[in-house]
Each structure stands twice: as structure tokens, then as C-alpha cells.
Amino acid sequence: MSAPPALPLQVALVEDDPALRDATMQALSLEGAEVTPFPDARAALASLDADYPGVVVSDVRMPGMDGIAFFAALREIDPDLPVILVTGHGDVAMAVEAMKNGAADFLTKPFSSADLLRAVRAASERRALALENRRLREEAGRGAQGTIPGSSPAAVRLRSVIEGVARSEIDVVLTGAPGTGKSHAARLIHDLGPRRSRPFVTVDAGILAHEDAELLLFGRDPAAGLSRTGMIERANGGTLFLDGIAAASPVLTARLMALVESRQLLAIGADRPRRLNLRIVIARPAGQDAATGREALWHRLGAVQIAFPTLAERREDVPELFRLFVARHARALDIAAPEIGEGHWRHVLSHDWPGNLHELGTYARALVLGLAGEGAAETPVAGGRPLQQIVAEFERTVLEDALRRCRGDITQLQALLGTPRKTLYDKLARYDLKPARFR
């Protein structure tokens, strides 16, 4: 399996001999390639740009601009655009020199269809990786974080619910397995809501399990000696995010439940409670609290409950999420986004990711730091999933990437993928990909 995006073979064929041009077109077309013929180099230059997803096959000896000058002109457009030169025996030295300067390959006349197809396929795989890493670098430059990423139905629903809830003042309970993105969503709810300019205070399991947790959270009143403002009071007017509340002791849990219900804070040593203006967001593992008796806390909160899917429930989002994590880590470390090899993509697409977003992000960071192995030999194929399912997920990823690039424009999509319109619509329907979602 090649790394995304595994687009169909696309070839720009530049050949001034009509008979040879037709024969080469037929040989490539029989192997499923989409071939665009050009009678000379200048006609090809007028149509090719840095976003062309395919391979250029060009004769060397042509009237007007020859193949070597054409290759040099293409290098100016995009140094990563693969060019395969077709030469006569007398032009081999020129072709070898061109390869030293970055040409993908050269073939001497007469060449077999098998040799041509081998060269085109190898160059096409390199082109796919080059475009993928180019998109990755662009994403690193943008560094966008203000949303719930993904285009799966689960991600679309989650994004819609969070954006709707964020605009209100209602409290929220986020449920889901560890690593599913609850902390990121809590911050997003605050940043998209009316309290965005007010404090956002996170109380995590480390604080809740601390021996001085009560002091850290509720603070000490001046009447009791050395005063201290607690974390809860610092969130006044903003959002208090309780993450990992299961780590709290029964006594501390009771105090937090009273705070949730009354919005009143009683500091250590204080005679009377202080009224607080808080929005409360709580994250909890799904199904954990029924056995501990903490389920009453959520009912008292009267909050909206949002369930977070695991990566296993939104597998089609994994490639997009991985690109985003690599881009963010590269930006945070102030280093260039690395090349992603086929082995890394194979691992990303086949691994089960039981640790969800946290595990995927950790692997992305290891890749950015140069510490990630290819992964294919380290991790078994996820759940013994059949090859057909993995290939289908891969094809869906290619289509989604292309739809984003074309902003849902079907005409551009057809040109980009080199796929007949009816076939394209069939595939979009099969994967429930609606172009309007990408506009």
C-alpha cells in the first residue's frame, strides 16, 4: 500500500511523432493510466503547473524546445515534478546528465511497455509523497487548532454539537475513553463561547489527588492566617474545567458537588461562602461513575452530556488527524515538517490506536523528532481487518484529500484525479462524500 494520496496514474505525454505518441498512449491507457498528449513542449508548458499530480514523459529530440530545455523549464515550475526522458542512443549522455540534475528516469528507444510502466509507476509514487508532504508543510504553516478536526460523520456531529453548545452558557459533561480529545474540546467550548475573554482554569487529576488539594482548590480565607486564592476562585467569571474528577477523595468530591449545585465557594477558615459566576465543564471516562456513586454529580449539574467517539469509530479521520499532529509538533518544535514514508503511512492506516488521539499524537511527535520506526513490523494489522477494508479506507482518504483541495468543485476534482465523471460520482456515493461539505 502506497502512502496517501494514492491517485490514479496520470501522465503528460510530450511527443512530436504522432504514430509513437498514439502507440505510447495506448500502452499506458491499457494499464489504467489517464494520459494527456501534447505535440510539443510549449503546449505542455501552457497546461502544467506545480499542482499537477502526475508524471511527465517527454522525448528529447523535438523541434523548437527540446526535451532538455523543457525539463529545465519544468524544474522552474516545480522541482519535484517527475520527468521521464525518452532518448535515442546518441542522447544517453544528455539524459544521464539530466538525471543528475533531478530527472526521474530515462528510457532509450525502442523501449518496452513494461519498462515504461515501471518507470511511470515509480515516479508516480514519488510524486504522491512529494505532494503529500507539501500539504503537510502548508498545514504546519497554518497551525490551525480552533476546531474539531475530521470529516467522518462522527466528527461532523461532534463539531456541530460543540459549536452549538459553546455559544450558550450551559454547563457541559464530556464523556469518552481516555485520549479522545475531551481536554481540547473543553478549551474550544470556552474559546468559542461568550466567556472567551475571561479565565479558563483546568483542574486535573494531579491536583485532585494532591495532599493539599482542598487548599489548592478552595483557598484559605485571610481570617485563618496566611490567605491564598484557590484555583476555583481564579476561574470566577470564566470557565472551570474539571478533568479526572475520579481521582478526588470522597470528602473532596462532596465539596465539589456542593459547589456545582450552589455555585458558592467556602474557603478554608471562612465564615460564609462567596457566590461565584462559573461555567463548569467536566471530563469523565464513559461508564466509570455508576460504580463509584458519582453519577449524581452529573444529574445535579444539569448539563449537556457530549459523548466522544474513539478513533476506532472514526477511522476515516486518522490520516487527516495524523497530518495535523505532525504539523503542530513541527511548528511547536520550530523545525521543518519531515517527510512521511510509506512505512509510516502503512502503520498509521493499519494500527488500532487503542490510546486514541493521545497515542496518535505521540507517534506523530516521535516522527517529527526522527524517533519513529516504520512501524509495519512493530504493530500487527488492526484487528485482522481484511485487505479490502483497508484499501477502501485508503481510497476514501484520497477522495477526501482531493475534495478539500478542490473545495468540492466536481470539475476540478475530475481533472485532479483523472477519473471519468460517472466513476467519480459512484465512488463519492459509495463513501457518502458530499462535495457540498467541502465548499
* Order of helix and strand elements from N to C terminus: EHEHEHEHEHHEHEHHHEHEEEHEHHHHHH
Shape: elongated
- The CATH topology of the largest domain is given as Rossmann fold
What would CATH call the class of the largest domain?
A: Alpha Beta
State the secondary-structure class: alpha/beta
Q: Give the strand tally.
A: 12
**Strand order, biggest sheet?**
2-1-3-4-5
Question: Ends: how far apart?
Answer: 30 Å
Q: pLDDT average, as an integer?
A: 83
Q: What kind of sheet is the major sheet?
A: 5 strands, parallel
Radius of gyration: 29 Å
Tally of DSSP helical segments: 18
Count of individual domains: 3
CATH architecture of the largest domain: 3-Layer(aba) Sandwich
- Percent in helix: 40-55%
Pick out the low-confidence regions.
Answer: 1-6, 376-383
Tell me about this structure.
The strands form three sheets. This protein has a five-stranded parallel sheet, with helices on both faces. A five-stranded parallel sheet has the order 7-8-11-6-12. It has a two-stranded antiparallel sheet with strand order 9-10. The N terminus is likely disordered. It contains 18 helices and twelve strands. Strand 4, helix 4 and strand 5 form a beta-alpha-beta unit. The two termini are 30 Å apart. It is α/β, with parallel strands linked by helices. The radius of gyration is 29 Å and the shape is elongated. It has three domains: 133 residues, Response regulator (Rossmann fold), CATH 3.40.50; 158 residues, Rossmann fold (3-Layer(aba) Sandwich), CATH 3.40.50.300; 125 residues, no CATH class. Helix 13 crosses helix 15.
